[in-house]
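1st attempt posting a full record on here, be nice pls
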Amino acid sequence: MSRNRLGVAAAVILSMLAVGATTSAAQKKPKDAAAAGAITEKDRERGKAEAPALAKSAGIACTVADARFIIASTDPKTKVKTDYFEIACDQGMGYLLIADASKPAPTGAPCFEANKPIGDKPSPLACKLPGNLDLQAQLTPYIAKTGKTCVVEKSRYIGASPAKTFIEVACQGGNGYILETAAPANIAGETRLNSCLNYEAGQTVACELTDRAAQLAVVDKLMAGSGKACTVKDRRYVLSTKDGASWFEAACEGGTGFMIEQKADGTLARALACADADFVGGGCTMTDARAAKTEQNGLYTKLSGNAGFKCTVEQYGVFNVPNKEIVELKCSDRPDGGIAEFKGSGGIVYNCALAEVQGYRCSFTKKDASYAQVTKDLRSLKDTTCNVRETRTLDRATDNAVYMEANCDDGNGSYVIGYQRGGVKPLEVLSCAQAKTLGGCKLPGNK
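the predicted structure (as tokens):
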């Protein structure tokens, strides 16, 4: 998009039209009404009669709540007549309509643009209908549709491309956004509210009403509410997601750092250590994530040991589970890995076979490395020579237990082991016949 397509050309057109309109104003309206800027009943009657059809032809999707005829002009050279109308919609933006007899369809300019001064003088085509006097209020339904919170203090019309309209809004509290909607603006169309931090100064679409540093101050507020130990020394905007969330990086005194996710409503979603945040925009750039990963490996080694799962952690992955710290562990000193649910200084670690039954799946290590432990669990409850060669999760569970089918390598079929839900303790062993109400055995060679 060029800057001309975002309003400069339109401003020039308005300026030209305004000159033409001014030359014929005395012929088309009573002098006293024109001088006072009054809206006569006659103008309203004509506006309500003609403007709805013109708005529809211009592609403006709104229910016209009020309208007025403004003025008519005739080009002295071409003798082409142009009529000007103003409309106020039941919701959303008001418009100036330009019906040029030489064009196949009328065009529309939002009141935001029609109200722009011509040079140092007010626009003679400015919107005056009562429904168009508070233009900032017209933005409210668009903002509400995005799910974000913004009480508009100031706004600035940037312009429109053939498909999109762009308006800058400055909100109470210091946040700023670019409102992006259809062109012509349509409350039923797709609407987005993009943080000003997405745009660099000097671009065609950029913010001028808010300060970038002031907007980044939200990082300190979010970090303070996260419960993480961090005195913020630097901060940066990373990205926004389609659901309206925003990500920021915070660099802390002492060398640590976090990625912070802010919900669409402005509240904190989560704060992730840089070691766990490589998936966010390529990861942290203001802190040493490799050093953080090494430090975190040591922490998880300690925590898994506290949970009774001795593992020197060489790799880990964090699950995106709200309000829980779920981590997959790969160990350098044992072949089997696990999924940990950490709480405080401890927690519980499921081997990869049991993790699948508890609702997780390992990706660093295969579950067959855990079959030796499943065999021990089976033999702790039943006198058998079965060595487990394959496992699967049964279709059903109970409030207190989850069930695993364990197939034996000696061809003697399967057993069903019930484990404590949310725990590693084996509770019971069932035959396949006894487990029919839980979905039964399905592995090859079961009995």
